[in-house]
Amino acid sequence: MSRSDTQKQGYIFNIQHYSVHDGPGIRTIVFLKGCPLSCKWCSNPESQQTRLELAFNSHKCIGIGDCGRCIKVCPHGSLMSGADSKIKIDRKRCQTCFSCAEECPSQALNVFGRLVSVNEVIKAVEADSMFYSRSGGGMTLSGGEPLLQSDFSYELVKEAKRRRINTAIETCGFADWPDIEKVVRCLDSILFDIKSLDSGKHRQFTGVSNEKILANFKRLCESFPKLPKLVRTPLIPGFNDSIEDIKAIADFLKDIPNIKYELLSYHRLGQPKYEYLDREYPLTDIRLDEEKVRILKEAASILS
Q: Which of 48, 169, 256, 283 could form a disulfide with 141 if both were Cys (CB 3.0 to 4.6 A apart)?
């Protein structure tokens, strides 16, 4: 790979080490910003926009009386006094220059996302290489949707493969086929979300229909029949938590080779991040019954 390729840049919001849930073995997960979906249950709202975003954790704020340094440095007048003498952000006036975050001593103000090069990411991934050889692990690209930054994702997995690092990607499947094909050629496995076979409900809960996703999945299976595929369905109350929903997906998958199927239980671990971005969490009142989860996993067990 040329120096220009390893210096190619993209936007990420986290690198998570020592994961055991996102591909085989112990993985290093690179979370890329940007997603074409807007799932109501999204646990990473900071992943939805490709651009960098200003976040505010009011619990860390020292208060205007004891600090107020952010207000003084903001060149756009977008910070003001809010509840409990803590700051409030006028998002319409904010130009995301991040001067306030640089000045904030408590890191109540911080930036979701950073621009990094392929070389920077691979260097962080290689720091965990001793765990890959022992566990069969490697690097997984996640998000957001990694294929929204397809050129950057391609250079990442290509360089990882050149260095003999096992590669995987987590995808919602809503991407142009040439972008998928290019990246998949450098993968050892793929984690593919199929959330629902009902196009209307899919659009209602994610913002897009499922036709392109299912077409891409079928083409993936035809073009790369030997590639190990883990299909995952997040169980969301009121969306896809019926036996009929899960059996429909399981039946859709049952005759495809090299497929494993996994149900993911709904959780609200990402809810505080909506507050940091001044957004409302859409599914505040829903719960997923553990007994129902057990029943649904039995319905999906034909692929286990």
A: 169
